């Protein structure tokens, strides 16, 4: 039996190919949702539009400090794993859900599979970096998306036998949903946008939006971008960011702030954008796969493959850097090859998990 633990928007999206494959093979599995994300447009919406089965459990942990959230998840997951006794638990990515889910399982001597293992920004000030490192070191199966991720793990002394390079499940998720998005959603018309004549933005990293200067820098950078190119800037805001923008009372000249979109709408917006500006991990990958230039509003990235192939540029968070980086990136033509695999990561992961039997 496979236990799939997830709790946030990107985990639902990137685990969806794994869940689909478990369904297709009629495997014995269950979904444990921690409830880290709970607002409709950060959670339920994705179950509905990706047609995913209901989680068997939801811990409803909600928001809180890192220790509070991680502690609640650890406590709740342990009880359920004790009862269900799966042969293997799968976690995806680098959130508090991931580190707590993996730790609860490993203390119960349940095997842990880490999907998207081996990513490193080498910046321990990011909470996600701590979660990644800890999760990788307590996992038994490390599903690395790229050779570079595998090398990061080997450098930290992790046994090569535990590592399997699968590609990133985000590619599966894109391939499985791009055509559906074309048929089902019409977000460009809804927002009165023309292809390649708008910028798309996301920002939610704690170190960016919880820092007044950085958030101001981002907003100013977007304003100057809008002025220079005279094109709409579409900014679907994450709830963390919405809260901070309201608290700071930043005026947002020329930026169209919207609700967070569903995955189908967001995919469509990404694939037709002139340029995407983001601090998201998943969005750096998706733009690279979709052949759209990306400017990452950070000073480092755990997705260096995108920099190496020339789909992404680090522009920082001050307004001048954002404008300058955007000027460069808008000139790029899609000549790069996607480094994240050919869309069979979910199948490979499930194949490995299906062979695991507990001691
Ligand atoms: C979390 C992850 C981050 C990931 C992101 C994906 C950690 C440490 N962070 O960040 O790695 O990139 O999810 O989006 O695990 N909120 C709502 N509704 C929700 C969820 C959150 O209103 O459904 C608000 C709350 O005010 C909350 C804040 O957003 O305090 C932050 O939520 P939280 O889950 O702590 O972190 P994220 O910024 O979402
Ligand atoms: N996404 C979405 N709607 C939005 C913004 C993002 O569906 O309005 C999707 C996006 O396509 C990607 C994922 O959310 O698959 C990225 O999640 P997020 O940026 O919250 O987290 P990160 O990847 O940084 O952990």
Automatic annotation (TrEMBL):
According to the UniProt entry, what is the EC number of this protein?
5.1.3.14
Identify which top EC class this enzyme belongs to. Answer: isomerase
Gene3D superfamilies for this protein: Glycogen Phosphorylase B
Q: Which UniProt keywords apply?
A: Isomerase
Q: Name one Pfam family in it.
A: Epimerase_2
**Does the keyword Membrane feature in the UniProt annotation?**
no
The record's NCBIfam families line, in alphabetical order, gives:
wecB
Q: What is this protein called?
A: Udp-n-acetylglucosamine 2-epimerase
Protein species of origin: hydrocarbon metagenome
């Amino acid at each position: 039996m496979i236990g799939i633990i997830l709790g946030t928007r990107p985990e639902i999206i990137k685990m969806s190919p794994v869940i689909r494959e478990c369904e297709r093979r009629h495997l014995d599995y269950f979904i444990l949702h921690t409830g880290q994300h709970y607002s409709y447009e950060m959670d339920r919406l994705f179950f509905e539009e990706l047609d995913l089965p209901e989680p068997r459990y939801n811990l409803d942990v909600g928001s809180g400090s890192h220790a509070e959230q991680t502690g609640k998840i650890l406590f709740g997951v342990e009880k359920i794993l004790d009862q269900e006794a799966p042969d293997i638990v799968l976690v995806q990515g680098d959130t508090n859900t991931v580190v707590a889910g993996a730790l609860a399982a490993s203390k119960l001597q349940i095997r842990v599979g880490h999907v998207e293992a081996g990513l490193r920004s080498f910046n321990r000030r990011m909470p996600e970096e701590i979660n990644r490192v800890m999760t990788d070191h307590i996992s038994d199966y490390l599903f690395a998306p790229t050779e570079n991720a595998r090398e990061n793990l080997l450098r930290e002394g992790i046994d090569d036998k535990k590592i399997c390079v699968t590609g990133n499940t985000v590619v599966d998720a894109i391939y499985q949903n791009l055509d559906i998005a074309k048929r089902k959603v019409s977000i460009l018309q809804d927002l009165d946008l023309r292809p390649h004549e708008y910028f798309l933005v996301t920002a939610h990293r704690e170190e960016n939006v919880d820092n007044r200067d950085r958030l101001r820098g981002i907003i100013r950078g977007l304003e100057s971008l809008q002025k220079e190119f005279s094109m709409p800037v579409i900014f679907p805001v994450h709830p963390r960011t919405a809260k901070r923008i309201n608290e700071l009372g930043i005026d947002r000249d020329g930026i169209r702030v919207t609700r967070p979109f569903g995955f189908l709408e967001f995919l469509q917006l990404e694939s037709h954008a002139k340029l995407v500006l983001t601090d998201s991990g998943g969005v750096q990958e998706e733009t690279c796969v979709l052949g759209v230039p990306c400017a990452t509003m950070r000073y480092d990235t755990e997705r260096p493959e995108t920099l190496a192939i020339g789909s992404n540029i680090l522009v920082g968070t001050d307004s001048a850097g954002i404008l300058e980086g955007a000027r460069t990136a808008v000139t790029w033509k899609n000549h790069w090859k996607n480094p994240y695999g050919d869309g069979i990561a979910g199948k490979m992961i499930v194949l490995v998990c299906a062979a695991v039997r507990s001691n």
